[in-house]
């Protein structure tokens, strides 16, 4: 029988050892789906609140450094706009119709003047959105990623950013997944294939510099 505790310990070791891609010169911070529907639902544990507080610190530092902040939010004009799997199965996206209070960004990481908001209808922030054009306009060569869930919308957005040859830095303390094992595996998968998984401390020091 598989010892999952040992497996998690091993992938954390592998993640720490993996060669890094490195940061860019013109980063932007992507905040993925930190909406009430995804951070205040019945299955959330204390890790969601911790990730939100950590992200608030990240955003304060980014704004102080003049680094653009971009929020990705799930907004549906109709629940029929969802992909097939979410229409068939129960999903938190049922709370994401335009005008539903559940779609609001958590007050812990509230949008501020000068920030950018990009609406999306699926997990990735790049599918049929204005994110590509916005990043090009900003001259972005790296995205610093926070958000939820690590194995869902964060991972999908990270993959699509990597496919565009953007440098990607996932801040470990600023992402959350109520599916704990899925989150751990996804951090390793992203570090192995698509991105750098970095600490909040090193990111704050980098932005301060």
Notable features of this structure?
209 residues, alpha/beta, six-stranded parallel sheet, single chain, Rossmann fold, Isochorismatase-like_hydrls
What is the CATH architecture term?
3-Layer(aba) Sandwich
CATH superfamily: Isochorismatase-like
Q: Fraction of residues in helices?
A: 40-55%
CATH topology: Rossmann fold
Please give the alpha-carbon distance between the first and last residues: 48 Å
The outline comes out as globular
How is the secondary structure organized here?
Elements: H1 4-17, E1 27-32, H2 36-39, H3 46-64, E2 69-74, H4 84-88, E3 116-120, H5 131-138, E4 142-148, H6 150-163, E5 167-176, H7 180-193, E6 196-198, H8 200-208
Parallel strand pairs: 1-2, 1-4, 2-3, 4-5, 5-6
